Each structure stands twice: as structure tokens, then as C-alpha cells.
Amino acid sequence: MHEDRVFDPEPSVRRLARTIYERTIALPIVSPHGHVDPRLLADDAPFPEPTTLFILPDHYVLRMLYSQGLSFESLGVEPKGSVPDREAGLIPSAATVERDARRIWQLFADHYFLFRGTPTAAWLDYQFDEIFGIRQVLESGSALRIYDEIAEKLTTPEFRPRALFDRFRIEVLATTDAASDPLEHHARIRTSGWTGRVIPTFRPDAVLQILAPAWEDEIARLETVGGRRLTTLGAFIDALAARRAHFKSLGATATDHGVETPYTTSLPADEAEAIFQRARQGTATPDDQRRFQGHMLMVMAGQSIEDGLVMQLHAGSLRNHNQFVFDRFGPDRGADIPIAAEYTRNLRPLLNAFGNDIRFRLLLFTLDESTYSRELAPLAGHYPAVRLGPAWWFYDSIEGMTRYRDRITETAGIYNTSGFNDDTRAFCSIPARHDLSRRVDANWLARLVARHIVSLESAHEMARALAYDLAKDAYRL
């Protein structure tokens, strides 16, 4: 990889960018929001082989290969649902799931050219080069040599999860965990004697989606882990508060809420109770779902003031857009698609209730870039409780992160943002994503310096904030 990758081709800006970036290289990684399985670090077992490490957990990889007609079965993804009618004209599917990891890797390498120009390629190239010392380009002819070299290294102690955690200089890693999760893996990490800081994040989405087919099962799991029946809304809310307290006892500093639209409302107690009872009886309506979720976001904000947990709100994604893929393979297969989202009116009830309270912290994320300068930056630039999350998901890219900085800084500044988080399931991509972010920010700051908008000294301070300080402050770490 070129040492000046991402930096501006204009020589003076490139020199400034390199100077600013070099001040951030040695900073520890703060990873306050992500989806790494905590079992990985609780077990600290060697990674099985390269395919399991690089391909299967990474929906960015899977979605690109699927978009070009490769079946999930050919990539080693196990179906969870029934086999569809092969005469229906659906994407070709292998009769059986490919379980030969080397064949899957070869197929991946044969199609690696598909990722040219994408952040996925930047992340993967970093992992191959910086972590595993691979000096060849991944392609059809080099595929198995690279596979064998990585596989051999994965058998050594230096490449076990905890050793890599320390090598990556991760100061703290937050996972994302269901409200009903017993958190046994987090408990094992804390009692293992290892000093790595891995903390849970409370995500109650599954128990707030009252129209979801599995909602009653989620409620049953919440009842089991909480040890009591949830026959009233009051009991349900108390159970969530108890679970939040348990999460906090294991180090949690934040909650996370994923919604299509950030609608919030306060319902009268009897109306909210009636909706909960209809949900328990299986007669809730789509309007019930909208109002119940909006009401519960208000409840969650109130509980955040009580227990101090930072509230994250991820809006603007239509989850599981591809029904065939969801039915056959389950969620998180790359079929979540951005939608437009309105924040100013939808969040007004919540922000009028809690946005002026300095005990409350609300981090906002969006997949609707049009709202950056029109709504989100003005909200963060006014309400003391609001911080903006970084460019998220499809915009966690070189140009996406640059557009984010350009559109929000003049209104909100950088100190009303929450720095960077990697939001990844692929463990070894963590340092790759943080490095790319630090390079993009260094280049953006270099342009400001070159135009005499900020001084070089200020740019150094801002680069440190964006890479490290803001995440710690925003997430109260």
C-alpha cells in the first residue's frame, strides 16, 4: 500500500496531511460501537482459517459478491430457512453449502476485482498488508498461496484474538447485545484475569418491535433472564431498567436503538398499556407499533437520565429489504437499504423533554445524507444533549466521511460530534477502519490549513480529538 494513500495529490496539502496523520498513528483505538461477538475474546481460541475470519462475518463482502450472482451457499453461508423453488428464476444456488474453505477463498479471490475503489478493498488491503504481512495482490493466481500464509500465521499465539486486541492498541471495545442477553461471555472476560476492556451495549430493539413474528419469543427470553412475568407495561419497563443496570454492572456506558424513522411521542399511561396488551394478545396494528416504539424511545431517554447510559439512535435503514435472503439466510446479509428520514419534527417531543438536560446524551446516526446540514448539524449545534455519530455504514468511506465533515462542521463544529466508531463484525477490520478514518480526517484538516481556515497547531489538536478524545467523551468512557 502507498504510504500517502487517501491524501490529496496536491503536494502542499499532501505534506500537511502526512504531518497531521503521523501525530495520530500511535493513539489507542477507542471502539465504542460495533458488533464483534464477545465469545471471540472470552474463548480466545485461534481463528479457524482465513475464510471464517475475512469472508463469513463481513456483510460488505457478502453483499458485493451476491450482487454479482454468487450464491450465499457457494460462499459457505448456511441457510436458516426452507429451500426456495429452484424453478422460480431466483439467483442460482448450490445444491449444498460449500464447506471447503480453500474453494470459498479461491472464489473470493477470483472476484476480488469487484471491490476496486470501495472502502471494503481499503480495509481488506490494510489487513492483508499491515496485519498479516502479505505483499502480493490478492487475485486468482495468488489466492491459495495467500490463504496458506494467513492460515499458518493463525495457528501461532501472536494471532489469537486477545493478542491481536493488544497489538491493535484497542483501549476499549464495545459490543452490541440484546436486552435479553445473559452476557455470560462478558462475565467470563471480566473473571479471566485478562486486562482487555470489552464492554456490552444495551440494545432493546427486539423487545420493542411488537409486530415482529418473534416478539413473543423475545419477551419470553426477557422474562427468563429477568425471572418474572411481564403481564403489564409497567412490569416490562421495570424489567428493561433492571437489564440496563446489569449491563452497566459489566461496564456498559451506552444503549443502542435502530429505527426506520426517529418518531418520538409521549402516550397517556392507559393508551400505552392498551397497546402493550394488544401486542401480548397478537392484535397490535402497524399504527400501534409506530406509537409504541415512539413512546418507548421517550421511556428509554428518561431511563438514560436515571442511569447515565448514553443513548444512540440509528435511523434511516429499511432492514432486510430482500425478503428471499431474509427468509433463507436471516438478517445481516447486506440487504439493509437506506431510506429518507426526518429528524426535526420527529425528535422534537424527545428533545423538548430531555434535550436541555446536561445529564442526557443522545448520539444521532443517519443513512440520509441530505439531513446532515439541513437538520442534524443544526440540532447538534443547539441542544446540549445531542452529539452526531460519524458517517455511518454506506458512508463510512473516503468520500462519505469527507462529505460528512464538509456538511456538518460549519454549523456544529467537530466538538458536537462523537469522533469515529468502526461499527464492524469483522474483528481484524477494526484497525483498518480507524486508520482510514484518521487518514481522511488528516486530509480534510490539511485542506483547512492550506486555505488558512485553521492553523497547523489547531489541526493537530483537532486530529487527536477526532481520532480519540471525542469518542471517549461522547460515550463517557
What does this structure look like?
Strand 10, helix 17 (371-380) and strand 11 form a beta-alpha-beta unit. The model has no long low-confidence stretch (mean pLDDT 95). Helix 14 packs parallel to helix 16, helix 17 (371-380) packs across helix 18 and helix 19 packs antiparallel against helix 20. This protein has 20 helices and eleven strands. It has helices at residues 11-22, 38-43, 50-54, 59-67, 101-110, 119-131, 143-154, 161-167, 184-191, 205-208, 215-226, 233-249, 269-281, 286-307, 323-329, 348-354, 371-380, 398-412, 429-450, 456-474; strands at residues 29-31, 170-174, 177-178, 198-199, 202-203, 254-259, 310-315, 317-318, 337-338, 362-366, 386-388. The protein folds into two domains: 11-48 and 157-474, TIM Barrel; 49-156, Orthogonal Bundle (uronate isomerase, domain 2, chain A), CATH 1.10.2020.
CATH architecture of the largest domain: Alpha-Beta Barrel
Major sheet size, sense and barrel closure: 4 strands, parallel
Could you tell me the strand content as a percent range? 5-15%
* CATH topology label of the largest domain: TIM Barrel
Percent range of helical residues? 40-55%
Ends distance: 33 Å
Radius of gyration: 23 Å
Structural class: alpha/beta
